[in-house]
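TEACHING EXERCISE
Course module: macromolecular assemblies
Task: Read the component lines below, then compare them to the predicted structure of the full complex.
Student: A.B.
Group: 4
Components provided:
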Amino acid sequence: MADIYIALVHYPVYDRDHKVVTTSITNMDIHDIARSARTYGVKRYFVVTPTRTLRLLAQKILDHWERGYGSTYNETRKDALSLVALADDIDATVQMIQKDTGETPRLVATSARAGARRIAFAEIREKVAASGQPLLFLFGTGWGLTEAVLDRADYILEPIRGVTDYNHLSVRAAAAILLDRLRGER
Amino acid sequence: MADIYIALVHYPVYDRDHKVVTTSITNMDIHDIARSARTYGVKRYFVVTPTRTLRLLAQKILDHWERGYGSTYNETRKDALSLVALADDIDATVQMIQKDTGETPRLVATSARAGARRIAFAEIREKVAASGQPLLFLFGTGWGLTEAVLDRADYILEPIRGVTDYNHLSVRAAAAILLDRLRGER
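Instructor-supplied answer key:
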């Protein structure tokens, strides 16, 4: 089975007016996605932002749960948050994986938008089931990853579809569903 | 296809010490689960609490997005939140569905705990695919629905399993995964 890494990208992403922005780190994104990552055996969950003060904020949250009061209050949170790493950008994320594993991860961009070059969940599931290079799944905050990020990815995953044309899942829900589709019991 | 209803139950649920408590309503639970519900064609999403002041708080949040500033700022939120209804308890929830549809929903309790009388996802998926009485899925906040709620349910759904023994998904992630397993494209 190929190793899975995930990254929550706070830059570069679109805002509602399609401008490229840096979004804020939120406490809930760190916690929820860490717990999903832990459930599905993700190797590491990267929180990616170029803003140093936001990385420091995130580090404070992590310290609270790993070493501070939270570590004794809730062991299962500590356990999940031990998967979280902070990174400046996607390149730094890739380098950290290279350093840990000696391998270059394949980049899989996710998007709620349809478009060219989308790969089906079933196909990515097969790549995950096979052994091989690790896979790094990129999730965009705000209104999603920019086209530049999609262009550099090895694969762009098809959008998650429900039974309606509504495609505004939270990134927390989308990450959970993606992991279940790739690794959940069928 | 049977209609799906979901309810987020704030009482009666366990706290970390297995005491029966009422948990707080959180903004994120309302938003995230409403967006997942909208994606998967859920008929109505009930936020269930016996605490009147918490229902009033929830109503304020809903009003903000349905009629206040939020309704013009973000149409897709408004769209999702229009599915949300507030209810005092599980009985009141059932009565509201009876009033709307003339039918009594079958209660499906969810739990992260293994135990007696669990029904497989595949089996519930078949019941959803078949026509028939609506299904009301109950999600517990805090440390989960009490045994009394599980006992009165028509079905208790098996826990969501990833690839590890970690069973501490957020209720937001669990609801998203459940809906995708029941109604998502396979």
